[in-house]
Amino acid sequence: MEIKLIDVQIVWAFRADQRIVNLQVPQGTTIGEAVDRSGLSQYFPDANLSDCDFGIFGVRQTPDTRVASGDRIEIYRPLVNDAKEIRRRRAQPAQ
Questions:
Q1: Which pLDDT score, from 0 to 100, does residue 95 have?
Q2: Judging by DSSP bridges, how do beta strands 59-61 and 53-56 pair with one another?
Q3: Which residues of the chain are under the pLDDT cut of 50?
Q4: How far is CA 73 from CA 76, 88, 93, in A?
Q5: CB-based contacts of 59: which residues, under 8 Å, 6+ apart?
Q6: What is the set of domains in the chain, with CATH numbers?
Q7: How far from 86 is each of 77, 89, 94, CA to CA, in Å?
Q8: Short-list 10, 12, 1, 46, CA closest to 30
């Protein structure tokens, strides 16, 4: 039985650098498996992928979501600053 390969793209961006990896994976591959196969951890060795969320074309997905041909898998880093907290601090009167 022949294994059908599909094309996906994986995107991971940091403030100063971004990587886009075009990859062929077997049909039925999950987001987590595709990210593991991408080799992105070699470019960002200090990053912890287990702390990241994932999405396909801007829609959040779980790591066990199966990918389809042409999907753009996005890796979302944890927020450094919570936007709500920043607005709260700005709204407080100066002391």
A1: 61
A2: antiparallel
A3: none
A4: 10, 33, 42
A5: none
A6: 5-91 (3.10.20.30)
A7: 18, 5, 14
A8: 10
Yes or no: say if 6 and 27 are a contact pair by the CB < 8 Å rule. Answer: yes
Token look-up 């992928």 returns 49
CA pair distance 81, 73, nearest whole angstrom:
24
Cα distances (angstroms) measured from residue 3 to each of 32, 39, 67: 19, 22, 15
Q: What is the pLDDT of residue 94?
A: 67
Residue 42 tokens read as: 């070699």
- Which segments of the chain does DSSP mark as H helices, in order? 31-38, 40-43, 83-91
